[in-house]
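Case study: MFS transporter.
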Amino acid sequence: MSDQLTTTKRSTGTALTNTIAAISATGGLLFGYDTGIISSALLQLKAEFHLDTLGAEIVTSAIILGALFGCLGAGTLSDRMGRRRTVMVAAALFLIGTVMVATAHSVAMLITARLLLGLAIGAASQIVPIYIAEISPPEKRGRLVVGFQLAVVFGVTVSFVTGYLLRDHSWRIMFGIGMLPALILFVGMVFLPNSPRWLAMRGRHDEARDVLRKVRPSDEVAEQELREILEGHDEQAPWSVLAKPWVRPAVIASVGIALLCQLTGINAVMYYAPTIFSGAGFGQDSALLTSVAVGCAMICATLFGGWAVDALGRRTLLLRLLPGAVVSLIILGGLFAFHLTTGIGAWLTVLAVMGYTVFNTGSLSVAIWLIGAEVYPLSCRGKGMSLVAGSHWGADLVISLTTLSLVEGLGAGGTFWLFAAVNALALVFIARYVPETKGKSLEQLEASLKNGTFAPVAKAQKQANLQTS
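Here is what the predicted structure looks like once written out:
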């Protein structure tokens, strides 16, 4: 009878954890859809609003600028209000922004609506991965947090498919579809529990215990985890703690991954793929279909990454896949540089884009939100994740504002070769500064920061010192 109760409790806890992760990840779906739909809608917006290259870049980038401010503000907000309520605020902003963008009749209103959507996206990117990570058990944390990124790329793919199917209809419908997942997110979060770690940080230990008992396989496991949280718990820290030497390795690793996720070019391909391919001689319909294929490749890569982060490890996944992204971009750059994008070259171009998408999305895009949510101490996790998300959106803003200009200045071939070089540099950075976090509790990772064994280069140096002493 006791074994049956334990099995039932384990199944109930797993089901609740999965439900929490799934509903929370709807924020990722909105993130992906609202950032991705612009690539299809832009073809209509440029004609209706008479947008030149700069105008197209501003409309595209407005959402990124909003996301930059949204993620920076969400850190303090989530520490005060809680992870769950902050997600609800983001859902409300998604709803308001979607209504505004779908009814915009001027460039100014369009940009304002996109800024508001950006605030929601920035907040969601900061808080949803933390909420999922803080409520998940260590052995499942990887794939559950990657579920957020899976929702992002699924949202991007849905936006590409929607853009293709509605290519002969109004762009307003394309944007308006985003209201449904925003409603699901807002209503769903009403019924979910608070993060047990946030509750513990606020001194609400009994409430933290109750949540842990609901999402863990036994009361004993819940009690042990609560003890570890309380033993390693510090008071809520100010922003200045992120500059302290013992926290700095977490900042370097997480912010480095966040910057490289964008500087390696993945969103340049996502945002401007139809425009780039149209300029290379593809018809408009073919360009949109290529974007759908890119989205499907992103989903497959993220599904693989969601398995691999727990089976192989975060660091191992990054080091194994990124070389493929470098090779794909070198080939892609050559096809454009030597004008080989017609005939059989057109198919080679699509395959190179797909290869790059799989290798880059399956590594950096999978790891960014997971590593950012894992590596910071509880006392500054919200602020640390704000810094991660802010770095991501800041780099994204630079990429979205400059990609079309880079293509015009360097040519598509030169632009892709530049991204190949950045992907190669990413390999060196990961080898030196990004630790393996697979299977470790959040409290164990915090302990490695405090004892100086967090970064691979520091850990290797410490081991060498011990051997020679």
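For the exam, be able to explain this: The domain at 8-192+234-468 is CATH 1.20.1250.20 (Growth Hormone; Chain: A;).
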